[in-house]
Design brief:
The complex is a heterodimer of chains A (143) and B (198). Chain A is an alpha/beta fold and 143 residues long. Chain A has a single domain, classed as Immunoglobulin-like (Sandwich). Chain A is 25% helix and 29% strand. In chain A, the strands form three sheets. Chain A has a three-stranded mixed sheet, with no helix packed on it. Chain A has a three-stranded mixed sheet with strand order 2-8-7, with no helix packed on it. In chain A, helix 1 packs across helix 3. Chain A is elongated and about 75 Å long. The mean pLDDT of chain A is 84. With 198 residues, chain B is α+β, with helices and mostly antiparallel strands. In chain B, the strands form two sheets. Chain B has an eight-stranded mixed sheet. Chain B has a two-stranded antiparallel sheet with strand order 7-8. In chain B, helix 4 links the parallel strand 5 and strand 6. The interface between A and B is medium-sized, with 18 and 20 residues.
Chain lengths: 143, 198
């Protein structure tokens, strides 16, 4: 308990609690459910030249109800196989997810030939919402 | 205008609106399957059908084709896929006549037309299998990006790991969508109802 002459110690806590309250209880908003990844032009040629640079992340994280649609765009000049399908040059593949799980896909755009899609449940609890907001902020900052 | 004529006009407009809605990209975007855009012609097959006829997609123009790859000795993935597709056709009722399942073998050394016919008939007699020489099957697999890996047991027997997605080809022969393995018959019914309207 804060004694009468130390009430000012609680003052800095007020904005912190307000921010945490907002982050935990305010509805989450996204501008689009699509998480876009592009296979750039020349990917196949670079692979053939021995370049093992990763074009796409080997692990993609999606969240149900928020960004739960994987949108792949093949800008390369050759067909690319992504998991369940072959994508022709210039073609998009829009794959929605409805179940939280870890999905392993073959992907020719990767040096390893593999790609993992981790689909997480919708953040409903205040703590999971705060966690999601912090992670989104951090990932946008480092992207 | 009489009230009856006015009602007919409203009904026609509502129907036209529904059809127009089904033809929009937004309708295709509501599929549970992964959607390919722009829609391109599905690569043609040049195989032999388990029904004794030449197997090509042009044969089924006007129907929605569900195309998948597998083999008759498959003990895990193929029976589940085929049972799911048979279940979806059953749930569709009369319109299922507009849906054709084509199942192409990845094991041409063991699967011939008779064997595929017997295997597929145990799920749904309307299913058509695709068989051919190793070169013909390889060409079909390559055109759809299908991978398959043979795993040989100590006794010389073998199994084959293979891509397990189901390609959804619209009535005009366009490769419209791809359903990853693991979806339910209800998911297929949902998407087929949309594809049958496109």
């Amino acid at each position: 308990m804060i004694s009468g002459n130390r009430w000012w110690i609680a003052v800095p806590l007020v904005p912190v609690l307000a921010v945490l309250g907002w982050a935990g209880f305010a509805p989450l908003h996204v501008t689009s459910h699509d998480e876009l990844f592009e296979i750039p032009k020349g990917t196949y040629a670079r692979r053939m030249a021995g370049d093992k640079v990763e074009i796409l992340p080997s692990r993609i994280r999606l969240t149900l109800g928020l960004n739960d649609v994987l949108l792949l765009r093949n800008l390369d000049e050759v067909p690319q196989v992504f998991g369940p399908t072959i994508m022709m040059p210039g073609q998009n593949f829009r794959l929605p997810f409805e179940k939280a799980s870890s999905y392993q896909f073959a992907c020719t755009a990767h040096a390893s030939g593999q790609m993992t899609i981790l689909v997480e449940p919708e953040p409903v609890m205040p703590w999971s919402r705060i966690h999601w907001r912090v992670r989104e902020w951090w990932e946008n900052r480092t992207r | 205008m009489t009230p009856l004529a006015r009602a007919r006009g409203v009904a026609v407009l509502l129907c036209a609106g529904t059809i127009a809605q089904a033809n929009t990209p937004a309708a295709a975007d509501s599929l549970k399957a992964g959607v390919l855009s722009p829609v391109m012609a599905a690569p043609e097959l040049e195989l032999h059908g388990s029904d004794g006829q030449a197997l090509n997609l042009a044969r089924f123009r006007g129907k929605v084709v569900l195309l998948a790859f597998g083999f008759s000795s498959c003990g895990e993935v193929c029976p589940i896929t085929l049972a799911t597709l048979a279940g979806a056709r059953k749930k569709l009722g009369a319109v299922a006549t507009n849906v054709q399942v084509v199942y192409v073998t990845v094991d041409p050394e063991r699967d011939d037309a008779a064997r595929m016919k017997k295997f597929l008939s145990s799920f749904d007699p309307s299913f058509v299998g695709g068989v051919g020489s190793r070169a013909e099957i390889d060409a079909a697999q390559k055109s759809y990006g299908i991978s398959s890996t043979k795993q040989v047991y100590a006794d010389g027997n073998y199994t084959i790991g293979h891509s397990s997605s189901i390609y959804m080809i619209d009535r005009a022969g366009g490769l419209r969508a791809v359903m990853p393995y693991g979806h339910t018959a209800d998911d297929f019914v949902h998407d087929l109802k949309i594809l049958l309207r496109l």
